[in-house]
Design a protein that fits this description.
Elements lengths: L1 H25 L7 H15 L3 H12 L8 H17 L2 E24 L3 E3 L1 E3 L11 E8 L2 H6 L2 H4 L3 E4 L11 H18 L4 E5 L25 E4 L1 H13 L3 E23 L4 E11 L9 H19 L7 E8 L7 H9 L7 E6 L7 E7 L5 H11 L5 E2 L20 E6 L4 H4 L12 H20 L10
Parallel strand pairs: 4-5, 5-6, 6-7, 9-10, 9-11, 12-13
Antiparallel strand pairs: 1-2, 1-8, 3-7, 4-8, 8-10, 12-14
Helix pairs in contact: 2-13, 3-9, 9-13
């Protein structure tokens, strides 16, 4: 009887899939003129053979290196980028400056004092305060996750170093990050509220090698609410094993440099539209990086992708009807500050932003294409998705976020797409010293460039209204 019910449910499920597939096949797909289709095919082939995007990320990470937000290195990255974009032939190149609070690490080290003295590999979290001179030494109290820490009484936490040992789940779409990053954002604040001395977290990452992942914690000013650091996965395991045997005392020393205001900025360049230049198709990345590696995967690759794609569109015999705008955002890593600055500066132009996308999830292949269009514009989504199928990209849902620096644009009515990259290994490198240029696979990067060139050109060339609510 149980087998029969299972078989019946399976047949019903398969029948539902066939029905959904039939409905999908019957759904409208917007027409693309032959001449436009031929240009898309040229762009895809050009993307697969591209050299510009790969050279951009190679030279950015080599000639500039790490690009901490608000630093002299981020400033050099802006100057370097404007020169490169000019040499590639882009138009309307400029920097839109904005101020940010500046934070940088100077000293970050930790050691187990007892019962088994030994050093640990750590990195201070962005926004951490300095410890008192000589560091802070205290007994460690371990929690599985943020919920456990929140539920703990202040008496239990007071004067201790909190250690949150939550592991991150590896996923293709990066969804495990949203859960794991909560401890990085909130540990110092909650620890401080409960009278704790400092906070340590297991690194927010998926690798098991002996280096730590940095990242921003919550702050309402230049710094947050206490000293905080991420521990490498092997050292987190070591600490847990010792705690299972009895009390453990740790010394943490963090020294940081801060300024209430430092310069950052968004670098902008355009392929100006031939008929409606005021209408914008925005493709972006972020130019800043953390200071541990050279920011190749996060997010030099994204900048190479959008620059390479826009340069291919610029190489066509004529520009598309609408303008393709490339935005290299500043200060993303420290709170999406470039994204907010752009949205504020261009608030009166949002109706003219036809479509937006950001590449900020590494350099692996795009495997699905997500949209966030009005219901009446879904035939346009299907048309774009079909053009991308030869690249191994499947259609997906209509709930796209677009990317971190443009995540505020849908709230302002701007349609967005997310060309979803394979993120299976992304958080092995994310915010670590191992984020370096040798991790970039040229063929995978070029598949991204081909996809971005294709959909950005279609959005800029066709008279499609992606806000359309009804058929």
């Amino acid at each position: 009887m149980k087998f029969g019910r299972t078989a019946l449910m399976r047949r019903s499920w398969l029948a539902s899939l066939w029905l959904l597939a039939s409905v999908a096949q019957a759904q409208d797909v917007a027409d693309i003129p032959d001449a436009v289709r031929e240009n898309v095919e040229l762009l895809i082939q050009g993307g697969l053979d591209d050299t510009v995007g790969y050279a951009f990320v190679r030279d950015l990470t080599t000639e500039v290196g790490p690009r901490l937000a608000g630093s002299e290195a981020e400033e050099r990255a802006r100057s370097w980028s404007t020169q490169e974009l000019a040499e590639l032939g882009f138009q309307n190149i400029r920097v839109e400056p904005f101020p940010i609070p500046y934070w940088s690490r100077r000293v970050d080290r930790a050691s187990i004092v007892s019962p088994a003295p030994q050093d640990m590999v750590i990195t201070a979290l962005g926004g951490s305060t300095s410890t008192p001179p000589g560091g802070v030494e205290a007994e460690v109290i371990r929690f599985e996750n943020m919920n456990e820490l929140r539920a703990a009484s202040s008496d239990v936490v007071s004067n201790k170093i909190v250690f949150i040992d939550e592991k991150m789940t590896r996923t293709q779409d990066g969804s495990g990050y949203g859960m794991a990053v909560r401890k990085r954002r909130n540990c110092a604040l909650t620890t401080s509220q409960k009278g704790g001395a400092a906070c340590l977290i297991r690194s927010v990452g998926t690798q098991q090698r002996r280096f730590a992942h940095t990242g921003m914690m919550f702050r309402s000013a230049v710094v947050g609410d206490g000293p905080a650091a991420a521990v490498s996965p092997p050292d987190a395991d070591q600490l847990t094993r010792l705690l299972e045997k009895g009390p453990v005392k740790v010394r943490l020393e963090v020294e940081v440099e801060t300024q209430p205001e430092a310069p950052s900025g968004n670098v902008i360049a355009e392929v100006v539209g031939r008929e409606r230049p005021e209408e914008i198709v925005l493709i972006g990345c972020h130019l800043d990086s953390w200071d541990l590696g050279t920011g190749a995967v996060d997010d030099g690759a994204g900048c190479g992708i959008v620059v390479g794609a826009a340069q291919l569109i610029m190489s066509l015999d004529e520009a598309p009807r609408r303008t393709v705008r490339v935005v290299l955002y500043g200060a993303e890593e420290v709170g999406l500050l470039g994204g907010y600055a752009y949205a504020e500066r261009h608030a009166d132009e949002m109706d003219n932003h036809i479509l937006a996308a950001e590449s900020d999830f590494g350099a692996d292949k795009i495997w699905r294409f997500e949209t966030r269009f009005g219901e009446g514009a879904l035939p346009y989504a299907r048309a774009i998705q079909r053009m991308l199928e030869p690249l191994g990209i499947s259609p997906s849902h209509n709930l796209a976020s677009g990317g971190p620096d443009i995540s505020m644009l849908p709230r302002l009515g701007v349609p967005v797409v997310t060309p979803r990259q394979n993120g299976w290994d992304y958080f092995d490198l994310h915010h670590t010293p191992d984020d370096t240029f040798d991790k970039i696979d040229r063929d995978k990067l070029n598949q991204n460039i081909a996809a971005y060139a294709a959909f950005a050109y279609l959005a800029a060339e066709m008279d499609w209204d992606f806000r359309k609510l009804t058929p």
